[in-house]
Design a protein that fits this description.
mainly alpha; 79% helix
C-alpha cells in the first residue's frame, strides 16, 4: 500500500476516534442547546463515516467490526437524546444486526439491545422495549470484564422502563 494511502487510513482512524469522543462529550452534556444536538449528531455520523472508509484496509477486522457496530450504537443514542425515534430505531437495529452478523457479544451486544430498547420506548412500542431490555440484561451474563459488566448494568438501570421489567 502506498505511503500516502496509509496516511489517509491513519487520518480516518484518528478522525473516527476523535469525533466519536466529541459526540460523547455532547451526549454527557447537561442542558443541551439546539446547536449541541446538531453537533452531537454530526459528530456521531462523521465518526461512523470515517470508520466505514477503512474497512478494506484494516488488518484486524474484528476490531473494525466492533468499532463500526459501536458507531451505530452511538448514533442510536444520539437520536434517542434528540427525540428522533425513526433514526434511533434504524441505528439501534443496525447495531444489533452487526452484532449478529459479526458474532459480536460482550458489552457491545448488551448496549446494542439497550439502545434499541430506548428507541422502541421513544417510538411508544413498550412490548418491544421490554423485549430488548430483557435481551440486554441476558447479554450482561456474557460480559467478561467485571468492571465492564458493572458499568453496563449501571447504564441499563437508567434505561426507560428497566425498573418495570427487572
Amino acid at each position: 500500500m502506498p505511503e500516502n494511502n496509509m496516511d489517509l487510513i491513519e487520518a480516518h482512524k484518528k478522525f473516527a476516534v476523535g469525533l466519536f469522543n466529541k459526540a460523547w462529550e455532547y451526549i454527557d452534556k447537561k442542558d443541551k442547546t439546539d446547536r449541541d444536538f446538531e453537533e452531537m449528531i454530526n459528530s456521531a455520523h462523521a465518526s461512523a463515516w470515517h470508520w466505514s472508509q477503512i474497512e478494506e484496509h484494516v488488518t484486524d477486522h474484528t476490531r473494525w467490526e466492533l468499532s463500526f457496530t459501536i458507531s451505530h450504537n452511538q448514533l442510536a443514542n444520539v437520536y434517542f437524546l434528540a427525540n428522533r425515534p425513526e433514526a434511533a430505531l434504524y441505528h439501534g437495529g443496525k447495531s444489533v444486526e452487526y452484532c449478529d452478523k459479526y458474532g459480536i457479544g460482550d458489552f457491545a451486544r448488551g448496549f446494542a439491545y439497550e439502545c434499541l430498547a430506548k428507541a422502541h420506548h421513544l417510538n411508544g412500542d413498550i412490548d418491544k422495549r421490554n423485549e430488548n431490555l430483557k435481551l440486554a440484561e441476558k447479554a450482561a451474563d456474557d460480559i467478561k470484564g467485571e468492571d465492564d459488566k458493572k458499568y453496563f448494568l449501571s447504564e441499563l438501570n437508567k434505561a426507560p422502563g428497566y425498573s418495570e421489567v427487572h
